[in-house]
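QA checklist item 7 of 12: single-chain prediction sanity check.
[x] sequence parsed
[x] length recorded as 341
[x] structure emitted
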Amino acid sequence: MTAPLPAFGAPPGRAPVIVGVGGHVPPNVVTNDDLVARLDTSDEWIRTRTGIAARHVVTPGTATSDLAVEAGRKALKSAQDAQVDAVVLATTTPDHPCPATAPAVAGRLGLTGVPAFDVAAVCTGFLYALATGAGFLASGLAERVLVIAADAFTTIVDPADRGTAVIFADGAGAVVLKAGDADEPGALNSVVLGSDGELSDLISVPAGGSRQRSTGLPPEPGDEYFHMAGRATYRHAVERMTAAARQSLAGTGWAPEDVDRFASHQANARILEAVAERLGIGPERRLSNIEHVGNTGGASIPLLLAQKSADGELKAGDRVLLTAFGGGLAWGAATLTWPEL
C-alpha cells in the first residue's frame, strides 16, 4: 500500500503564479529512419512502442546550459523581461559534476548575483523545481523565480541500446514564477511530490558518482550510460503518476472531468495513454508533443506547455493537470489554470 503523498499549498497572498513560459530544442533532428540505419529496429517498431517519429539531439559542443539559457531567455521575454530573484535548474545532465550548472546559466542571462542552484529529480525535476521556487516565494526570499528544466539526455544514453536510444532526446523548458494570489490565473494549486529510493536501481547511471569511484575500480563496460528496467518502470510510472494526479485533483477540488488539458511527462505514448485512461481523461484533452521531440527528461512538461501555448492548443483559462515520474524513484503532480501570456 502506497503511503499518502505530501502536498504543497501556498499561504494566502504568496501563491506561486506562472507569468512567463519558454521552450527550446536543438535544431539537429534525428528521425526514426536515421536510427534504423544503425540499430536493429524499424520505424514501425519505434512508433508502435513509443509514439515517437523524430527527436532533437545536441551536436558536439552543445551542453545542457546552452539549452537552458535559450529556454530561460524566452521565458523571461514572455514575462516582459521581469527581474527575477533566483534561478532553479532541474537537470540530470549538468555541464559538470562540479560546479552546479545553474550559476553559469544565470550569469549568461544577466542574472549574476542571484541565488542559482541545480535540482536533481530526473524526469520529475521540473515539478520538484517548481515546488522549490514556490518555497522561495512563500518564504519571502524572492518575488520572482526563474524555473528551468533542461537535459541533454542523449549524452548519457548508449547509442547502441535500442531500448533507450530511440526514446530519449534533448531540450529545455522554463517558467517565471511570481508571488501572487491563489485565485489568479497561473497560480499553482495542490503540488504533490513523492519518492521511493528502494527502487532506485530501476533507473540509473551506475558509474561516475562517489559510489562507483570510491571502489577504486574502473566502471563496468556500459555503466557510464543510462540504464532503465523498462517493464518495471512502465508499471510504476503508470501507478505513481495516476495516484499523484488523483491526489492533486482532490487537493484542488477538481474532478477529472473538470480538467481541460492534461500535460503529462512525455515518457512514451503507451504510458501517457494508460495514465490518461485511468484518470478518465479523453484524447481530446491530452497535450502531447512526443511524436516530434521524444522524451526530453525533466524538460518535457515545460517544453510541452511552451509549445502548446504558442500554437494555441493551450489557452488562457484552461484548467491544467500536470504529472510526472522519473528516477529516484520520484513522482509528482500539480494543477493550475493557464494564464494569459
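[x] summary fact logged: Residues 1-7 have pLDDT under 50 and may be disordered.
[ ] second reviewer sign-off
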